[in-house]
Amino acid sequence: MRNTRTQVAIVGAGPAGLLLSHLLHRSGIESVVIDIRTHEEIATTIRAGILEPGSVRMLVDSGVSDRVLTEGDRHDGVVLRFDGDNHRIDFRELVGESVWLYPQTDVFIDLADRRKTDGGDVRYGVRDTAVSIDPPVVTFTEADGRPTRLAADLIVGADGSRSNCRHAFPDGLRTEWFREYPFAWFGFLAEAPQSHPELIYARSEHGFALVSQRTSTMQRMYFQCAPTERPEDWDDERIWAEMRKRVNGNGFTLQEGPISGKTVLPFRSFVTAPMRHGRLLLAGDAAHTVPPTGAKGLNLALADVRVLHEVIDEYFAGGSDESLRRYTDRALDRVWKAQHFSYWATTLLHSIDGASPFDLERQRGELAMLTESRRGAAYFAEGYTGSWGPS
Ligand code: PHB
């Protein structure tokens, strides 16, 4: 067994874990990041693609990379499509902000490159991770087979929705809030030109569809489906037939092409609190999951890291637990706002099985209020861009 020590042991080398390690490095605090996945696995998993302005500022201002500004696409609004018509929500005009289309895989690559350039200690492909809180110790088997014991002042669990770290909290200490939805998204990549310059969130009688983008020749799209659907049951023609029904019409036609990257994404809302126990702190999906409508998951994880960096900085500066104690309340403030937005944007646009004629007309009334009222549109724009002020 190899015995090592660091100030902060970070479990999970996704964007949250790596950004925290980077920010701590800038504050002169040492960390070791471990992940059971390989660099290749993380870099090739397709995830969402929208960054709030606050996320972009964090990446650029902290010196991770400005590739998001040079290679990402700034989007000043999105389209809500219903009853066959497009209704644009203009973020820039309404709240003075924009979002950036920049896939999570690129955020990961920028962070991993930055950590490597700065000599960061990131260990991919480890196995058998076990976490104990008192004293804070992470044990694991290195990719080369060597058993390792890593002692730390603090442990951060940024290890995703199936978090090991969350389960290291003593029994009965956590409260969990959970909501399941009776549908999922079928996601796919299409080798085709852009159908529209901005994202289209479409409500139709056949269910929801989202037209997003990746590059000028590759598009990302989703349609609402049953959680039990299997990607292998859907060939290209069947997928396009479903998309056409939901999106085409009134002079609008989707650009089609060969399909790859088919996945079914589950829909869940989940929050656990507290997000800290003793010297163990949770960040991102380890502590909360949102449904993908509105692409809040990654942004929320990065917002946790902003708060976490501050409280850890204060902890090492003053040596008291007081700042750690404030972490949960500060992080949860934003978490519940994002939970509300993701839930609301979902119910606004999806077809709910068993909805009554009243429910359907009410949903149209809500969409009309949003798109016809400047204040309604601004409320959506504020949520989408995450312009809720600092937590
Ligand atoms: C994506 O491009 O993957 C995406 C965009 C917006 C969403 C969800 C996913 O709301």
TrEMBL record:
Name the source's superkingdom.
Bacteria
InterPro entries recorded for this chain? FAD-bd, FAD/NAD-bd_sf, RIFMO-like
For this UniProt record, the keywords arranged alphabetically read as follows: FAD, Flavoprotein
Query: Boundaries of each FAD-binding domain copy?
Result: 5-341
Q: What is this protein called?
A: 4-hydroxybenzoate 3-monooxygenase
Pfam families according to UniProt: FAD_binding_3 (PF01494)
User: Lineage from the top down?
Assistant: Bacteria, Bacillati, Actinomycetota, Actinomycetes, Mycobacteriales
Organism of derivation: Nocardia vinacea
